[in-house]
Amino acid sequence: MPTVLIADDDADHRDLMTFALTRGGHRVVAAVDAAAAMTELLSGEVDVALLDVRMPGESGIDLCRRLRAQPVTALLPIMLVSADVNDRHILTALYAGADDFMPKPFRRAEICARLDNLLLRKHGIARRPARVASARTAAVRPPRPVSALTA
């Protein structure tokens, strides 16, 4: 089970992301700021990092730059998330070394799919088998209404 670090100072956002990712089959560790995130990341137990752009002290973008500069975390998949979505933030995050950028609010299926793709790239898998992708899509697809099943 892949381990995802969520670094976000907002407890509600951490809880929502934790819920979504746990339901998506991930183990989650949480941090309230960049310093706590760095401690978790240096443990070597984290497979992918989800960093909020705006945190007190060091921002997620600055933390991303620092992670890319250190050999032990240079190849760690990193996704930045933010409710403040504008071209400047997105481009700054990507140029800082982020692998992806996810706007808040997010859809559970989308955040899980994006993280799964980052994990696949980390492990050198170009594509997952079609049957796995189909099963994953079916698992997150909302159920059909009863009327559609009887028609």
Summarize the structure.
The protein is α/β, with parallel strands linked by helices and 151 residues long.
Notes on the protein architecture:
- The protein has helices spanning about 10-25, 35-40, 60-70, 85-95, 110-120, 130-140, 145-150, and strands spanning about 5, 25-30, 50, 80, 100-105.
- It has about 150 residues and is an alpha/beta fold.
- It has one domain: Response regulator (Rossmann fold, 3-Layer(aba) Sandwich).
- Strands 2-1-3-4-5 form a five-stranded parallel beta sheet, with helices on both faces.
- α1 links the parallel β1 (about 5) and β2.
- It is globular, with a radius of gyration of 16 Å.
- Mean pLDDT is about 80; it is low at about 125-145 and about 145-150.
Name of the CATH architecture: 3-Layer(aba) Sandwich
N to C succession of SSEs: EHEHEHEHEHHH
Strand content: 15-25%
What is the β-strand count? 5
Q: Largest sheet at a glance?
A: 5 strands, parallel
Look at the helices and sheets and give the structural class.
alpha/beta
Keywords:
5-stranded parallel beta sheet, Rossmann fold, globular, alpha/beta, 151 residues, disordered C terminus
Produce the secondary structure layout.
Elements (H helix, E strand, L loop, with lengths): L2 E5 L3 H13 L3 E5 L2 H9 L5 E5 L7 H10 L8 E5 L4 H9 L4 E4 L4 H15 L7 H11 L5 H5 L1
Parallel strand pairs: 1-2, 1-3, 3-4, 4-5
